[in-house]
Design a protein that fits this description.
Elements lengths: L1 E6 L4 H17 L2 E6 L2 H4 L15 H13 L3 H16 L8 H10 L5 H8 L2 H15 L7 E3 L5 E3 L9 H13 L15 H10 L1 H6 L5 E2 L2 E2 L11
Parallel strand pairs: 1-2
Antiparallel strand pairs: 1-3, 3-4, 5-6
Helix pairs in contact: 1-4, 1-8, 3-4, 3-6, 3-7
Length: 231
């Protein structure tokens, strides 16, 4: 099995799902292609600049760096996403700051100058934008989005505590079973107050490390609210 995993490094939900995806990959020998999707662009307010019109643009720029690394080896963008995601979502660091991005690149044993090389290369804009547009054309609106070889596209899974081992495989089987039912569009678990508090607790490093106000399907969400971080 092969799957395209579309992510935005700024999203804590996608980061949790990426940890589950790596566990499944390592157990089953899957090919996971790390692809891009911009929450900044999908939630852009009319009149504001597009991400590709800015010199540096948070998640978009981190994905441009990933695009440059991916030209050499998919494993490099995998490592880049894992390290920048862990920095923001677990350590409360700011990988969206160019100086921190260079530090993280060095921590991976790579040349920090790759950060600036990616930003100087306008074609990295094109790669991120093409993959974002592909998801939008398929009806996608957020991350994580999984695209399978037959073209079927699924949003999710949205996870707070990603399973590992046998539990990770059971969830993978549940997700891929959806592919048998092309007209099964949605199933969702409602959140109660205890769930919302658990989300706030788990995403505290992200809430402290970010420099923006989250958007939730077009609505501005106050920092620290139960829905903060969802896009």
């Amino acid at each position: 099995m092969e799957v395209d995993f579309h992510y935005d490094g700024m999203c804590p939900w996608a980061y949790q799902s990426s940890k589950w995806m790596r566990d499944v990959r390592d157990q089953l020998g899957l090919t996971v292609n790390w692809r891009f999707f911009s929450l900044e662009e999908i939630n852009r307010v009319e009149g504001k600049k597009h991400a590709w019109e800015r010199e540096w643009s948070y998640g978009w720029s981190l994905m441009r760096i990933g695009a440059l690394l991916r030209r050499t080896d998919m494993a490099l963008v995998d490592a880049w996403y894992e390290r920048t995601g862990r920095a923001l979502h677990e350590e409360g660091r700011k990988p969206h700051d160019p100086a921190v991005a260079r530090e993280l690149m060095a921590e991976l044993g790579l040349d920090p100058a790759l950060v600036d090389a990616a930003i100087a290369d306008s074609t990295t804009h094109d790669e991120v934008r093409a993959e974002h547009d592909k998801v939008v054309a398929a009806g996608g609106y957020g991350v994580p989005t999984l695209v399978f070889p037959d073209g079927q596209t699924l949003f999710g899974p949205v996870l707070l505590d990603p399973p590992t081992g046998d539990a990770a495989l059971r969830l993978w089987n549940a997700v891929t079973t959806w592919l048998e039912f092309p007209h099964l569009y949605e199933m969702q678990r409602p959140k109660v107050a205890a769930d919302e508090q658990a989300i706030i607790h788990a995403f505290r490093p992200y809430l402290e490390g970010r420099d923006w106000v989250s958007i939730n399907r077009g609505e501005v969400v106050a920092i620290g609210s139960p829905e903060a971080g969802r896009s």
